[in-house]
Amino acid sequence: MSTMAEAGGVVKSKNLGMQVQKKMLGKMVTTKKVAKVFIDDTMGDLLDNVYKLCKEYKQSKKDAEKLIKNIIKIVIKIGILYRNDQFSDEELKIMERFRKKFRSTIMTFVSFCEVDFTFDKNYMVEALSACSDLLSQLVVRHLTDKSQGRIDYVFGFFQDGAFMDTLFDTNSPLKSHLTAIVAGLNKLLEEESI
Hints:
The protein is an all-alpha fold. It has helices at 13-28, 32-35, 41-58, 61-83, 89-114, 121-139, 145-159, 161-168, 175-190, and strands at residues 6-7, 10-11. Helices cover 75% and strands 2% of the residues. It is globular, with a radius of gyration of 18 Å.
């Protein structure tokens, strides 16, 4: 996608405006305080708990911050594209398939958390992989390789088998964070936000 779309020598302000929004987003989403402007309280609380979980699991504040920034940037960039009617009819179908698959995956994850001994790592890895593939198909025409790398990073973190084993271990040190995350996911599911 070119940096400035021109038609007969006239810059299309809508395209330019969208490019500026995406560029500003990349510069602005550097702190949780700024990100809260774009994200509602429920999602903010959920991301705070995902941050805590990642920080404890990885034992790295830097890795936790990178994960959250990548999630926020992906969500907001897709939102900007959607609000500016940038998706084709085919891409909108992909978006709907992603939304359904992601919601189903989240519901299954919540169920695995709430019902002991039901966790199926292979199922979760495959479901998350399918979500990642659909999201990549959706944005391939619109976002840079760097943004694609963000998608890969986020889904790669959650698809990691060792992480899942630790998360679902009955004596996991991550249990308190997982409980808070499940509560947030349940709220988002009830609100039909995901």
